[in-house]
Amino acid sequence: MGNSQVLAKDYVQQAEIELVIKEIGAQVAARLRAGRESTLQLILQWGVIDDAGLTGFAHSSKLDVSTAETNLINRELIWLFLIRTLCRITPPGSSQQKRQRLMTSPISQYLLECVR
User: Fold this and answer.
1) N or C: which end of the chain has fewer CB within 10 A?
2) How far is Cα 53 from Cα 29, in angstroms, rounded to an integer?
3) pTM of the predicted model as reported, rounded to 2 decimal places
4) Are 25 and 33 within 8 A, CB to CB?
5) Confidence class of residue 112 from pLDDT cuts 50, 70 and 90?
6) Domains defined for the chain, CATH in brackets
7) What are the angstrom distances between the C-alpha of 93 and each of 30, 34, 50, 64, 90?
8) Is it the case that residue 88 has pLDDT exceeding 90?
9) What is the pLDDT of residue 107?
10) What is the secondary structure of 67-92 as a DSSP string?
11) Residue 109: is its pLDDT beyond 70?
């Protein structure tokens, strides 16, 4: 189950992009719950069409437990966006503990983790 959306404007501010991701995540979670379903894998794809053509990214993550909970889905989607896209890193092992630690840190900590 997925959701796609054509946005009316370009989003460049991190807070705006995160809000869009969370809104889409909430829609998908609601549809999962309505269908009495859950998910073990999330895929975040983001495409941009500009003068140079189509650019973007696609990242996926396997969850530790199957869920339809909005907060868990959104936390993982934001993880995919921040850690694997902005920082261009894949943490060794991608352990749940490391993800939890990073997700509860302020943005300066994300950047610090990317630099190390």
Assistant:
1) C
2) 31
3) 0.69
4) no
5) very low
6) 14-115 (3.30.1490.100)
7) 30, 33, 35, 13, 8
8) no
9) 45
10) E--HHHHHHHHHHIIIIIIIS----G
11) no
